[in-house]
Amino acid sequence: MKKLFSILIMLVFSAGLYSFTSPEYFEGKWAVTVKDTPQGTATIPMRFETKDGKTMGYFVEDPSGTEKPMSSVSISGDVLTGYFNIQGYDVYISLKKVDDESAAGSLMDMFTAEAKKVK
Predict the structure, then answer these.
(1) Alpha-helix runs per DSSP H in 19-100
(2) In 3D, which of 95, 96, 92 has the Cα closest to residue 108?
(3) What's the pLDDT tens digit per position in 71-104?
(4) Share of residues in the chain with pLDDT > 70 (%)
(5) CATH class (in words) of the domain with range 22-117
(6) What residue spans define the domains of the chain?
(7) May I ask which residue range the UniProt record assigns to the signal sequence (predicted)?
(8) In what order do the strands lie in the sheet containing 89-99?
(9) How confident is the model at residue 63 (pLDDT cuts 50, 70, 90)?
(10) Cα(first)–Cα(last) distance of the chain, in Å?
């Protein structure tokens, strides 16, 4: 019985580790496409970096190409959530790893978001 309990604990622990995505996965440039907004489909260039254990996010709002910092970024399990102000609206985006080059999620839990790593 003790062996069975030990094996069960190991399986549960292993499953928990498997679903964890490291912050390094999200690092770099992303093209995030948000679908069916009131202004139509929009692609927002974003960039994420981790320094001293803290993940920061940046996005480009206008054609000037100037990056603006996100107000906060957190990674919980395998989901990145970033908060930022774009065109006068405070919004948040949630992205979850799909594969090595893409992530999916939503903007404000209302609009579908698809992200592709930019090389």
Answers:
(1) 23-26
(2) 92
(3) 999 999 899 999 999 989 999 999 999 999 999 9
(4) 82
(5) mainly beta
(6) 22-117
(7) 1-21
(8) 67-69, 54-60, 40-51, 28-37, 111-117, 102-107, 89-99, 79-86, 72-76
(9) confident
(10) 52
